[in-house]
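2024-03-11 09:14:02 DEBUG pipeline.ingest accepted 1 chain
2024-03-11 09:14:02 DEBUG pipeline.ingest length=142
2024-03-11 09:14:03 DEBUG pipeline.predict start
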Amino acid sequence: MNTRLKKIGELLHLQRKNKGLTQDEVGSMIGVQKAMISKVENGMCVNFNTIDRIAEALGVESMVELKPIKKADKNTIDYVMTAIIEFAKRHGLTIREASNYLNRFKGIDFLTEFYDVEHTLSFNDCVDDLTLVCQNNGGEIG
């Protein structure tokens, strides 16, 4: 299952719950069975027309964004590896534990997305930023 489709489904599910609607009610609003709403909410439906109809029934707009895939260059990879090592040292983790933690709580995504800015900072500031980003994404180290 594509994790991005699952995320779309999760967002529609939350919106439906916030509106106090059941899957049956949303299905009736757009002329499909409850099973179809369930498939969409579980990321198992790639029919964008159905996704769009559900979103419209829930009073939200669905959008698709296509972005070029960034290839990490050697400098970015070296920087991320060094940041993982520094994060591990500060928080008393093994490199593997730090890497898993940073991956789980979006720290590595943050470093690669904002490499242009982060690599100009000290590693101390970088680790501070990583700690905050991970905390904001549910991590408890800090």
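2024-03-11 09:14:41 DEBUG pipeline.report The CA atoms of residues 70 and 113 lie 9 Å apart.
2024-03-11 09:14:41 DEBUG pipeline.predict end
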